[in-house]
Every structure is written in C-alpha cells, then in structure tokens.
Amino acid sequence: MSSTEQGTSSAAPAEPTTAPESAAAPEVPESFYYVHGKDKVVHKVSAGALQHSALIHGMISNLGYTEEQAKANPFPFENIDGDILQMVVDWCNQHKGKPTPPEDTNLPKQKEKLFDLVLAVNYLEIKELLTYCCKQVAMMVKGKSPEEIREIWMIPTDAEDEAAEKEAKKRAGKEAAGETAAAAGDAK
Amino acid sequence: MPIRLLSLTSEDLQYALNCMEIDELIAFSLCSKRTKNLVKDSNIQIEPIYAKVYENYIRLEIMPSNLRGVQDDPDPLFIYLDFSNPYITLERKNGMEVWRKEGFTQSDWIAHFLNISNEPIIRELMINGCCPIPYLDTVKRIIPKFQELHITEDCSTELTEIAFRKLIPNAEKLQVDKDPFDNDIHISQFLKPNLTSVCLSSWGHPCKLELDDLLLANSSFISISLANITEKDLNRFVKIWTKSNHRFYRPEHIEMSARNEINRAELLRGIKYQTVDNSHLLKRADGKELEIFVLTNFVAFKFK
C-alpha cells in the first residue's frame, strides 16, 4: 500500500513538497480555471480553491473543460466588480483545502466594499465566506442605537417606505396602462 | 460608509440577523415597521420575558436562548420602563442607554418586545415589596396580560392582597411567597380563583389549612409549603371526594409539604384503596380515580 503511494508520488510533477504531506497523499496535477469580473481582468484559480463556490463548482462539473478550454473560456461574472472578485479569489486561495475556522480575520476591513462582497459571495454561493461577511455586517452595528443603525444601514423610515410603496404602485399602474394601450394599438 | 442593508437578499439578511446580539436586534427592530417584521420573521430564539416591578419602574429581563449561539449575547438583557416616562433604559455593554420612540407608551414597548420575540404574553410579573400600591393600576395598564403573577415574600399584607385582587384576573398562574399567611391574609382566598397553577410558600410559619379550603379550591395545580392541616381533615377530604359521584372537582393535583411527619395510617383510616408502587389508589363509583402519594413530610393527591 505504502509503496504504491510512494510510486504515485514520485510520478507527480517535481514540485517540492514537505515530507509528511508527500508521504500522506499522492500529488495529482492541479487543474486551473479562469474567472473575470466587470473589469475583464482574468484570475487564474485552482479547482481546489474554486470548490468553495457552489456555483462555479457546479459549472466546472457540468462543463468538463480541459485546461486549454478553461483558459480560452474564462467564467465571466459581469455583475461583480474586479476588486471584489479579487477579494473572493484571494479568500478562496487562502482557504483552499482547509477547514474554515470559526472566525476569519483575513476579511477585508473596508466597509464600503462589504456590501458588494456580500452580494458577490451570495451570487457565487460561497457559504462560509457569506457567513463571515454577514457577521461583519452585523458587527457594524455593535452597541449602536436605533438611530445610529438607521443611518449605518440606510434604513428608510415608515413614511419613506409608504411613499416608496405608493410610488411603486403608481408606476406599476402606469406600466399596466401603457401595456394595455400598446396592445390596443397593435390590435388596430 | 453606510450600506443599504435592506437591499440584501432575505437569506443574507437572515445570516446578518442571526449574528446580531439581542440588544442590537431590538435596536434594529425599532427602526421601522419593516425592520420590526424582519426581526419577528427571523424567529429569534429568546427565553420568555420576565417583568419585575420595583419602586417606580418595571424591569424586563430578556434572555437569549442558548440555542442562538451568539457568543457575546448578554446574559440576560435588562430593560427598564419608567412609570412616568415613555422611554426605556437599557443596560448594555457600554453602560446604560435611554431610547425613545415617537408615539410609544410603556405598553407599546411591552407589545413591541413580545411581538418581535413571538411570545404571546409576559411569562412572569413579579411584584416586589417596594412596589407602591397606587402604581398597581399603572402596572396593570402597562402589562395587561401575563402568565404568572409572583408576589414576593417582602410584600406587605396590604400589598399582597391588593396586588392579588387587581392583577390575578390577568394571570393564569399564581405564586405567593408569604410568611406568614395568617388571619390577616388567609390562604383560602388564593385557592379559589380558576387558575392553572397556584404555588403558596410559607416556609417559616406553616399556613393553617382546613377542609373547606381544599373543597373550595379551584385551580388545576396546587402546591402549598408548608401547610398546617390535620390528618383528620385530609381523611375527611378524601372521604368527601370519594362520595361526591359525578360532582366536578377542578383540581387535578394538590401537594402539600408539612413541618411534622404525616401519619399515613390516620390519613387513610376507613378508606378502601389499592397500593400500587408507592402510592395508594382509590376509585369512586363514577370511575374517577384518586392517587395519594405520602412521604414523611409530604402528601400529594392526583385526581384522574
């Protein structure tokens, strides 16, 4: 058994690895995929790192790309800003093949990016990172009063909510009326 | 830099709410009707709310459930409602904070806390000895419904009686710690209301209990400690119950602790019963059963 493992290990690319790891698991050439965000900057990410994303993992499993095909067809995420995608890729790389710790201190500290990060992570279905991000979101209001929370999270007042609701109804009514008029015009 | 939280997906919002401590959830719930409903729908796991009445304020105790698993949740959160002002004071990690909400009265605060915690009523209203009698009406107005009325040992006879009279119609359960129950405040009045549970404690001075007190009792569960009742009265009580075929008797369980040893033979004298395990079983003609359990200083009657 152990001789087979050693044999496989020696057949692997000559990448230097630590002795205990090479003895424990045979090395398999890692496959890489490519992703880009709104800024079209392509990031090369290993399949292991991308396993964190249920969305990308599902895409990889379904496509069965070769490395060349993957390089030629980076996964486009046009709805994600480049710097946000970079953060996600970095996080996936840092946590590749590792159990996710209960606390993550490596998360970006910029609050202005947090909201976009949550949206991106939710879209990419990276559950652990989403949990950390939401925790970070919750931390923003630690010890804050209702008025401070309203400000930080831009929560509309009841009056603003009611006005927005009225406006939405009005708009929906206008759209419906417009559609009816257009349909009547077509019929003529 | 602010972020527009309510634009997050409901799943993300739920994650964020799950990470928030109980006082922050309350603060968030007070921002608008929408945030209140979000907190309510998130089914935050908290223990039932307890209210204690002091000299000129009510202290609410809101305890997050262990199931929440939020590391820094306070244990528990204390919120103070002033009788004469519509604001609340919270004991938070950074110290005391005063919160106001336009149009909110004290009862609106209570209703809000119950609403977001999906609790129908306050679990226990505790009246302390320092509660001024004139404020009892205010207490009743602020907390119109609660499960258990608890009158503590340090309440005067007058406060005990008035608190009981005014507040018991709003309660389902009663606990009175009074030492002693005596002629000024006789135990019988506490046994008559139709409640699910009555617990009377008078550990220093056993309270005098008579046959009529037991016959007129009207709560499902009654616990008295310590009770001063003779075995002869208990024996007559059992015999009367046995003969009262088809007569409704509301109590389902009565238990009493006594200072002196209970004479089992005396209690069961002239009564036909079967002994099953450690209890004695009686059956009356209409099929109803009574199980009597006697220990050295304790007797329990279970009506089936």
TrEMBL record, chain A:
GO terms for biological process: protein ubiquitination; ubiquitin-dependent protein catabolic process. Pathway: Protein modification; protein ubiquitination. Residues 8-25, 178-188 have a biased composition (Low complexity). Residues 127-170 form the SKP1 component dimerisation domain. SUPFAM superfamilies: POZ domain, Skp1 dimerisation domain-like. Residues 38-96 form the SKP1 component POZ domain. Residues 165-177 have a biased composition (Basic and acidic residues). Residues 1-25, 160-188 are annotated as: Disordered. The keyword Ribonucleoprotein does not apply. Keywords: Ubl conjugation pathway. Probable essential component of SCF (SKP1-CUL1-F-box protein) E3 ubiquitin-protein ligase complexes, which mediate the ubiquitination and subsequent proteasomal degradation of target proteins. Regulates cell proliferation during embryonic and larval development. Belongs to the SKP1 family. This is Skp1-related protein. It comes from Caenorhabditis nigoni. The gene is Cnig_chr_III.g8742.
TrEMBL record, chain B:
This is F-box domain-containing protein. It comes from the Eukaryota. It holds the Pfam family F-box. The lineage of its organism: Eukaryota, Metazoa, Ecdysozoa, Nematoda, Chromadorea. The gene is Cnig_chr_V.g21596. InterPro entries: F-box_dom, F-box_Sdz-33, Zygotic_Embryogenesis-Asso. PROSITE patterns: FBOX (PS50181). It comes from Caenorhabditis nigoni. Residues 2-53 form the F-box domain.
